[in-house]
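Quick review question:
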């Protein structure tokens, strides 16, 4: 009888111990491996279809996954590229994505000239003219192949999806402003001005704080 009880308490067959990486992917619901965006090219043509519209995938990770030309690995499992989700930008081989909160962010990002321009801050630990991202952004964005295409993504609030606001051209920068301020011109303003989602972004900044 004692042997039967001991047998019933035996470890079930077929139980596989998860690796630390696999456990992180399962519990945190994010990839623990994948190529860095810095080694990949963003699919600008795919993004173009969403100009002036909320990106169908939520958050920074959703935008990055949409822009990745290939997000597949063994087993056809979707894996988003790696990037720093805490930074206000994402670097690719051929582009730089800028993240902006129309309201409620760490910096006062504002649209100017009816939405034709916007200011954006590098943020982080005391950025300077010698910071790698600043040096790249000051390289004068270009549409040439492999150039620094600067793309803007803005959300009205943290709980909303990002709206793709197209490409930007450098206007000015101010290293003396806290967070290192850039001013960008929205190159696609003529197409954005009729977008309901873009109008909502402008309207969000005109509402008095509650």
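Suggested answer, residue by residue:
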């Amino acid at each position: 009888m004692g042997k039967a009880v001991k047998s019933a308490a035996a470890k079930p067959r077929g139980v596989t111990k998860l690796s630390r990486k696999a456990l992180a992917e399962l519990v945190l619901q994010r990839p623990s491996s994948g190529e860095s965006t810095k080694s990949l090219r963003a699919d600008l043509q795919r993004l173009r279809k969403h100009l002036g519209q909320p990106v169908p995938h939520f958050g920074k990770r959703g935008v990055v996954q949409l822009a990745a030309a290939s997000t597949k690995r063994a087993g056809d499992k979707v894996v988003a590229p790696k990037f720093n989700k805490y930074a206000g930008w994402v670097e690719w081989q051929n582009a730089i994505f800028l993240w902006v909160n129309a309201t409620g962010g760490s910096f006062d990002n504002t649209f100017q000239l009816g939405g034709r321009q916007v200011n954006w801050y590098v943020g982080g630990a005391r950025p300077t003219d010698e910071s790698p991202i600043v040096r790249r952004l000051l390289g004068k964005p270009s549409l040439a192949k492999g150039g620094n295409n600067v793309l803007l993504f803005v959300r009205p609030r943290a709980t909303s999806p990002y709206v793709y606001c197209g490409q930007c051209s450098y206007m000015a920068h101010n290293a003396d402003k806290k967070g290192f301020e850039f001013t960008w011109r929205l190159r696609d303003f003529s197409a954005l001005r009729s977008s309901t989602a873009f109008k909502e972004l402008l309207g969000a900044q005109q509402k008095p704080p509650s």
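Why it works: The mean pLDDT is 81. The chain has seven helices and nine strands.
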